[in-house]
Design a protein that fits this description.
Blueprint (H helix, E strand, L loop, with lengths): L15 H18 L6 H5 L17 H6 L1 H19 L8 H13 L6 H17 L5 H24 L5
Helix pairs in contact: 1-4, 1-7, 5-7, 6-7
Length: 165
């Protein structure tokens, strides 16, 4: 069942057409350059490291986690979600159910909604490093708004769970 707010669309900032173009252009560059994770996620919040346990394996260091095939696969999946959001800028509501379920999965493994702020900062850092001078304030704003819309949909996964689940 769709959430009452599920008819959300890409938040149209001024110059929305250029924002969409900026997102598409920068996503294409990320794909070409194979942007990967940087250690700042764990520098910003070391408490996130234990959340990335695969097959009950605990990583001794952020570097061990960042180079683990399972973590790299997780990053690939994150980039697929971002790519899907960029591809559906004009109709993000088609991703609502998927993102809500993704939020439920993240909650089930102990992720806190607040952690998405740290992930946002890490994503923006990665984009800045990958895009260089093309990472303008307008591009940063567009990415922040898109990421915010994705996280808002994921947060509804938390809201959908009854207390105690």
């Amino acid at each position: 069942m769709a959430h009452p707010e599920s008819q959300w669309k890409w938040p149209r900032p001024r110059g929305c057409c250029s924002a969409g173009a900026s997102l598409r252009t920068s996503t294409a560059k990320l794909r070409l350059e194979g942007a990967g994770p940087h250690g700042e996620l764990f520098d910003l919040d070391p408490d996130l490291l234990p959340l990335f346990q695969y097959n009950c394996k605990q990583f001794a260091s952020p570097q061990e986690c960042l180079s683990a095939p399972e973590f790299l696969d997780h990053i690939r999946k994150v980039m697929l979600v971002i790519d899907a959001a960029v591809s559906h800028l004009e109709n993000l509501s088609c991703l609502e159910e998927y993102l809500c379920n993704l939020g439920k999965k993240h909650q089930a493994v102990g992720v806190k909604v607040e952690s998405f702020s740290t992930v946002r900062e890490s994503l923006l850092y990665m984009l800045e490093k990958c895009l260089g001078t093309a990472f303008s304030p307008d591009v940063q704003e567009a990415w922040s708004k898109l990421y915010g819309a994705v996280v808002k949909a994921m947060e509804r996964g938390w809201e959908a769970l009854p207390e105690g689940d």
